[in-house]
């Protein structure tokens, strides 16, 4: 092992832990194949992974082990429909919700083991009250998948979100509410729904406008009975955002 790789392993210890969890020679279809070379070649790539590294560093040992075990089958499961490693990153994004709740002062945070029934993702204690959190991820449209994979040469730039996006967001939140209620029918806990939003606008140039549209839609028909949190991911046009009808996790400020 070179000194450069040793240094990278120290800087990206949690991601290398995931990489090394694939036993034996790294399969040709594994996500982290060539990881060290990618980090060494590009500052942009290092910055991208550093945000995930910091997110994973915020987990305690139990939470990190949970995500690692959940991630294992996804490390060699590239999506054949053009969405790449979407399932892996959907899982890793759950660490954002953990860190957000921890930043609020939540204690005893842990991921709830999967079961045959639908369970929320996280449980903890905040101000002596139990909390439950369901994490959902919105991913890019099929049109954007086709464009990024080269199957489509032109895409329609969207300054405003389509009505279908807002409808899907509402349906997703409602489904998360029902999932939380099924787990805690007596509503003995504070219920959180944490949304990771993947827009087709990869640079985030129109993200402020998108958040404003979502906020206006929520103002017309408020979400009740849950604390709704939207993740403001770090992008090229990143800036902290705020909403009237939902909380915003401006996690990019530490990115």
Features:
alpha/beta, 255 residues, 10 helices
> How big is the Rg?
19 Å
Q: What is the strand content?
A: 5-15%
Distance between the termini: 29 Å
Structural category: alpha/beta
The major beta sheet can be summarized as:
6 strands, mixed
Q: What is the domain tally?
A: 2
Residue-averaged pLDDT, rounded? 88
The overall strand count is: 6
Shape estimate: globular
In spatial order, strands of the major sheet run: 1-2-3-4-5-6
Low-pLDDT segments, ≥5 res: none
Separate helix tally: 10
Helix content: 40-55%
Order of helices and strands: HHHHHHHEEEHHEHEE
Please give a structural write-up.
The chain has two domains: 1-77, no CATH class; 93-255. The protein has ten helices and six strands; from the N terminus they run αααααααβββααβαββ. The chain has helices at 3-11, 13-20, 35-41, 43-57, 61-71, 86-92, 94-103, 142-148, 163-183, 207-220; strands spanning 107-111, 122-126, 129-138, 190-197, 227-231, 247-249. Strands 1-2-3-4-5-6 form a six-stranded mixed beta sheet, sandwiched between helices. Strand 4, helix 10 (207-220) and strand 5 (227-231) form a beta-alpha-beta unit. Helix 3 (35-41) crosses helix 4. It starts with a helix and ends in a 6-residue tail after the last strand.
């Amino acid at each position: 092992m070179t000194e450069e790789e040793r240094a990278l392993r120290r800087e990206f210890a949690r991601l290398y832990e995931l990489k090394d969890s694939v036993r034996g020679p790294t399969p040709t279809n594994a996500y982290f194949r060539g990881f060290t070379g990618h980090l060494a070649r590009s500052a942009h790539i290092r910055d991208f992974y550093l945000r995930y590294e910091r997110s994973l560093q915020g987990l305690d040992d139990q939470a990190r082990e949970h995500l690692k075990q959940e991630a294992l089958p996804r490390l060699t499961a590239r999506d054949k429909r053009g969405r790449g490693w979407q399932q892996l990153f959907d899982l890793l994004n759950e660490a954002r919700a953990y860190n957000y709740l921890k930043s609020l002062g939540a204690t005893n945070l842990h991921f709830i083991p999967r079961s045959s029934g639908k369970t929320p993702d996280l449980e903890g204690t905040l101000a002596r009250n139990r909390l439950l959190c369901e994490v959902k991820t919105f991913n890019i449209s099929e049109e954007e998948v086709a464009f990024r994979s080269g199957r489509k040469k032109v895409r329609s730039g969207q300054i405003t979100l389509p009505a279908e996006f807002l409808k899907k967001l509402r349906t997703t939140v409602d489904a998360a509410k029902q999932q939380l209620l099924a787990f805690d029918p007596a509503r003995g806990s504070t219920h959180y729904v944490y949304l990771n939003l993947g827009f087709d606008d990869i640079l985030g140039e129109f993200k402020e406008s998108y958040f404003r549209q979502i906020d206006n839609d929520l103002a017309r028909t408020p979400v009740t009975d849950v604390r709704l949190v939207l993740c403001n991911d770090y992008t090229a046009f990143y800036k902290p955002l705020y909403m009237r009808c939902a909380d915003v996790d401006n996690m990019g400020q530490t990115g």
